[in-house]
RNA sequence: GGGGCCGUAGUUCAGCUGGUUAGAAUGCCUGACUGUCGAUCAGGAGGUCGCGAGUUCGAGUCUCGUCGGCCCCGCCA
């Protein structure tokens, strides 16, 4: 039961509501009269003295209400509960010696209250604001307007605002034009599932919400906007993950008369500025950013977006096992397969039981098995110990660059090299978690270049672009890409950080003939080309300049820079994993009348 | 589409191999208290154990289904 029903909010506040914010107060002189407004954060009622921490957007300040405060101030203050909305008039007083609070910016002063108005009460709070006790995701989404008052959440909102502001400043300084592109757009084949919007005027036809402004940005530079940028919402109707949202925000930009490295430099300038200004307490792995080829990363880390904050580098051990009698490895080698592994120095040293668990982890990642060799001070243990001579072990340790001392060697084998690398790469991350190797104060930004243009889609028997089909191949492959696609490398470049892909960018194709040929190659015939992409192809034929661009995601940037575990935390109003807004209850049913106007009948 | 974890007081959680009246902390209510800042002290209220079936003498606990949340695989150029 709350007493709130018996307290009527004041309808006669002093206007304007406040003369100062709490952050102003420390600089004001003692005795100054101020008018403040905000939420009651915490209340400490001593019967005589009452202390209330007042929270406004800029901080906290302690209010002090004595029994001899004017009028009924003391009686009113005694009723106040956390999250009630208050206006107070008072004077700045120094706190008595010994009662200062060093953890508060206003900790040396307090407000001696002469008048207090209750602007509103909070009758029904599902959870506490001042108390940062974790709440369930259900609560977090349904009562987001309360969660947002928590400092832990509010600081992310402020951080994101600062980031976007700096992004705009950066692009304005560099002469980019900020241009908005349509939200009601066109469904295109390939890629993710579209979010569709039915048309009322064209019954049976649908707009699609943009997965990205990809075509519009190219058409803008073709239209003479040499440097374009936009903070763009992008929507994909695919299942979500901890690092993936239904709708997300990209810093979308495109430039003409540039080569790949010009775009990379522009992006790198932005990222370095954001990192140095927003997270000065964190270290960059390298500045300027290191560049890796796709192949090198796959071979060394088993991923095209590896976490570079730690080592655990993968090495090819195939040749060392050519003589071994261990049948599993032998047959793999005889069939042209590969054996790869990495070394994890102790600590931690994994027990037999933990090794069995890790084998289970490896299997869950899709590995066919895991061979481990645990090296102690004197001896070593392994399920294949009887096949391992001291000499072989020494050469193995040498191969995986194991420093002298204890540690564990993990090996995987298989026929398809990149599949083994992929599994081992994921397993590498699992080990890094258990070994606590992910330094939260390190930002391992890096570039990935020289991606293959295509991979062969065995299920659909066709070439599939690694990025998208508007990417320009590297110059030396332009003449051969259509006749010998698979060896082609592209101008695609990714920026990665701490195991996440931050963005993909590239030079774009600006010749119609090449663009048309690539479309043909991925299975889009002339008729479909005209129907879906006629506008773009004609635009390329209208004097399209060389151009390219990239689009880093705001959500992931905020997540990585702040070290948050989920992208959901970076947006003001997140949805559940299934894409439901538990607060607004959307998606929702609509009136029959609305459906009729759209020519839609539900099945 | 598939796998896993979770759902118990307003909130965060505990609750063993099934066994009397389901607990703790915090919040809330009442009272006391003039230097607290997670105020303190005393007392009190508060639960359809997500929902529905089933097994059982007996279900918060076991089984099946269902709803909801989260993580992962698939998917996401």
Can you give a write-up of this model?
It is a single chain. This protein is an alpha+beta fold and 603 residues long. The protein has four domains: 22-120, OB fold (Dihydrolipoamide Acetyltransferase, E2P) (Beta Barrel); 151-278 and 550-576 and 593-598, 2-Layer Sandwich (BirA Bifunctional Protein, domain 2); 310-437, 2-Layer Sandwich (Gyrase A, domain 2); 452-491 and 511-544, no CATH class. The chain has 16 helices and 24 strands. Helix 5 crosses helix 15 (554-562). It starts with 21 loop residues before the first helix and ends in a 5-residue tail after the last helix.
In short:
With about 600 residues, this protein is α+β, with helices and mostly antiparallel strands. The protein has helices spanning about 20-25, 75-80, 135-140, 145, 150-175, 215-220, 260-280, 295-300, 325-335, 350-365, 390-400, 415-435, 510-520, 525-540, 555-560, 590-600; strands at about 35-45, 50-55, 60-65, 85-95, 110-120, 175-180, 195-200, 205-210, 225-235, 245-255, 285, 290-295, 315, 340-345, 370-375, 380, 405-415, 440-445, 445-450, 455, 460-465, 495, 500-505, 545-550.
């Amino acid at each position: 039961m709350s007493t709130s029903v018996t307290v009527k909010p004041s309808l006669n506040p002093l206007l304007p509501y406040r003369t100062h914010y709490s952050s102003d107060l420390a600089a004001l002189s003692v005795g100054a009269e101020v008018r403040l407004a905000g939420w009651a954060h915490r209340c400490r009622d001593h019967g005589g003295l009452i202390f209330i921490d007042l929270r406004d957007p800029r901080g906290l300040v302690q209010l002090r209400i004595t029994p001899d405060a004017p009028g009924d101030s003391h009686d009113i203050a005694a009723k106040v509960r956390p999250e009630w909305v208050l206006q107070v008039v008072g004077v700045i007083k120094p706190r008595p010696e010994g009662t200062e609070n060093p953890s508060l910016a206003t900790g040396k002063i307090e407000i001696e209250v002469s008048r207090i108005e209750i602007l509103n009460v909070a009758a029904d709070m599902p959870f506490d604001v001042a108390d940062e006790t974790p709440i369930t995701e259900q609560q977090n989404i349904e009562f987001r307007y309360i969660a947002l008052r928590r400092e832990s959440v509010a600081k992310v909102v402020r951080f994101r605002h600062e980031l976007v502001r700096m992004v705009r400043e950066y692009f304005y300084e560099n002469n980019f034009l900020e241009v908005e592109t349509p939200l009601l757009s066109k469904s295109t084949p390939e890629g993710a599932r579209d979010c569709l919007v039915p048309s009322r005027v064209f019954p049976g036809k649908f707009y699609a919400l943009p997965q990205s402004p990809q075509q519009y940005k190219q058409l803008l530079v073709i239209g003479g906007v040499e440097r374009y940028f936009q903070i763009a919402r992008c929507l994909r109707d695919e299942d979500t993950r901890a690092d993936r949202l239904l709708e997300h925000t990209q810093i979308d930009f495109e430039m003409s008369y540039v080569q790949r490295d010009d775009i990379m430099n522009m992006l790198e300038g932005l990222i370095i500025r954001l990192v140095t200004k927003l997270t000065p307490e964190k270290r960059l792995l390298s500045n300027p950013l290191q560049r890796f080829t796709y192949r090198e990363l796959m071979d060394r880390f088993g991923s095209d977006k590896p976490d570079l904050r730690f080592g655990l580098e993968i090495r090819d051990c195939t040749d060392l096992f050519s003589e071994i009698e261990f049948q599993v490895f032998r047959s793999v080698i005889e069939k042209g397969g590969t054996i790869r592994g990495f070394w994890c120095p102790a600590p931690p040293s994994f027990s037999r039981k933990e090794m069995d668990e890790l084998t289970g982890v490896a299997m869950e990642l899709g590995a066919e098995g895991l061979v481990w060799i645990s090296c102690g001070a004197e001896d070593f243990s392994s399920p294949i110990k009887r096949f391992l001579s001291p000499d072989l072990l020494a050469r193995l340790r040498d191969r995986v660059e194991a420093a002298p001392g204890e540690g564990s060697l993990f090996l995987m084998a298989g026929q398809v090299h990149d599949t083994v690398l992929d599994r081992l790469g994921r397993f590498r991350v699992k080990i890094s978690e258990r070994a606590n190797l992910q330094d939260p104060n390190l930002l391992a930004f890096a570039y990935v270049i020289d991606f293959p243009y295509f991979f062969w889609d065995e299920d659909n028997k066709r070439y599939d672009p690694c990025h998208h089909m508007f990417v320009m191949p590297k110059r030396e492959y332009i003449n051969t890409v259509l006749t010998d696609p698979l060896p082609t490398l592209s101008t695609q470049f990714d920026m990665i950080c701490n195991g996440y892909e931050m963005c993909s960018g590239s030079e774009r194709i600006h010749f119609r003939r090449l663009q048309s040929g690539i479309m043909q190659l991925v299975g889009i015939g002339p008729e479909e080309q005209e129907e879906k992409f006629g506008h773009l192809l004609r635009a390329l034929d209208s004097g399209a300049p060389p151009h390219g661009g990239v689009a880093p995601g705001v959500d992931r940037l905020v997540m990585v820079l702040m070290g948050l575990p989920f992208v959901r935390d970076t947006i003001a109003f997140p949805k559940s994993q299934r894409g439901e807004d538990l607060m607004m209850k959307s998606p929702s049913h609509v009136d029959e009348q609305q459906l009729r106007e759209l020519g839609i009948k539900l099945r």
